[in-house]
Amino acid sequence: MTAPVRVLVCDDQALIRTGFATIIDAQPDLEVVGECGDGRAAVDLARRLDPDMVVMDVRMPVLDGIEATRLLAGAGVENPVKVLVVTTFNLDEYVYEALRAGASGFLLKDAPPAQLLQGIRTVASGAALLAPEVTRQLVGKYAARIRPVPGTPEGTALAPRELEVLRLIANGLSNSEIAATLVISQETVKTYVSRILTKLDLRDRVQAVVYAYRNGLVT
């Protein structure tokens, strides 16, 4: 049997934290290995317990969820942990900063239990929990903040077709939409996406979007 996904739950509200833990632990393929109420404790517990992923609140005492995410999943972190941010704010500055800090996705706290569980499984599998239409909205709201400074080099490690696919990802297109635009199969698109993430050392499509804007590949 496949080992269950080991989850650390971090939220400063005990009722929400307990609720999440109860929902997660009731699933045969998921296991809560720890709970905590602030970002510093999340970092310490994650480093000690080595969970597969962390369900992370944003606004917390001692150390907020954004900085905790950066310490656990940010650039240059050895053995980064997957982080799913759960917040009361929909696509606000906090969510954007958390994604930029290394989170693999986000959910709202009022999401139904089934959506929380799906989100955990999605992030644990290595995918990003960010629908294409959400990517468009996120980029539309915050693109100006991730524009490159003069002289930022482009992603020259990518082949021309890979650059084309990356630009389409950054514009919020799904795999099926990219396939239709380039007149190729969805399987071919998946192959290109995988190559792009590998070559640029990115974990998911969210990071690919930020990379594209920061390196001047999208205007």
TrEMBL record:
Matching Gene3D superfamilies: 3.40.50.2300
Modified residues (4-aspartylphosphate): D57
Response regulatory domain span: 6-124
PROSITE patterns noted in UniProt: HTH_LUXR_1, HTH_LUXR_2, RESPONSE_REGULATORY
Stored Pfam families: GerE, Response_reg
HTH luxR-type domain location: 151-216
Keywords: DNA-binding, Phosphoprotein, Transcription, Transcription regulation
InterPro entries: CheY-like_superfamily, NreC/VraR/RcsB-like_REC, Sig_transdc_resp-reg_C-effctor, Sig_transdc_resp-reg_receiver, Tscrpt_reg_LuxR_C, WalR-like
Record's protein name: Response regulator transcription factor
